[in-house]
């Protein structure tokens, strides 16, 4: 999944992405 690249995403950006992905189906 996209979480595999979380290590390359800053915590702040990751939080924003998480909020966006939480609204969309990230199968």
From TrEMBL:
Known EC number: 5.2.1.8
Protein origin, superkingdom: Eukaryota
Class in the EC hierarchy, top level: isomerase
Reaction(s) the record says it catalyses: [protein]-peptidylproline (omega=180) = [protein]-peptidylproline (omega=0)
Matches recorded under InterPro entries: PIN4
GO biological process, one term: rRNA processing
GO MF term set: DNA binding; peptidyl-prolyl cis-trans isomerase activity
Keywords of this entry: Isomerase, Rotamase
Name recorded for this polypeptide: peptidylprolyl isomerase
Gene designation: pin2
